[in-house]
Amino acid sequence: MMSARKAVAGMLGVALILVGVSFLGFGLASALAPVLTVAGGAAVTGVLLLLPPLVWALAKGPTQNVTTQPEPALEGLWLGELSRLALKKPLLAVLVAVAAGAARSLLRKS
Asked: Sign (positive/negative) of CA torsion 31, 37, 43, 48?
């Protein structure tokens, strides 16, 4: 378990990183403003700060390794939650089961 102090320190670290990136973006936009106007400088700065994480996310994105059979423990958990829902709201449980069955059959075909 993570202690409360470590959690607070982690949140503070993330906040400091976000503030630092924000000031970096503001500085870059301010430096580009005389050349590209304020809007142009902000647009170029936004692209420069957005492009590296976007390229990284696309490179590390999901692959085609999709398992065909769900794990038995997760399937049992799913059925337990659906049965609990059926006790309180039977029509909603039927709709959820139909949607889940349709999604499962579509995923098996692809």
From this structure: negative
DSSP 8-class letter at 89 = -
Report the number of distinct structural domains present in the chain: 2
Q: Residues 44-88: pLDDT tens digits?
A: 988 888 888 888 878 877 666 655 555 556 666 767 777 777 788
99 and 55 housed in the same domain: no
Using a cut of 0.70, tell me whether the model's pTM lies above it: no
Pick the residue with more confidence: 109 or 88? 88
| One domain, residues 55 and 14 | yes
Cα 105 to Cα 28, 62, 79, 85: the distances in Å are: 51, 21, 17, 22
Task: Report d(CA 28, CA 109) in Å as an integer.
Answer: 49
Give the structural domain span for 28. Answer: 1-61
Distance from C-alpha of 30 to C-alpha of 42, rounded to nearest angstrom: 8
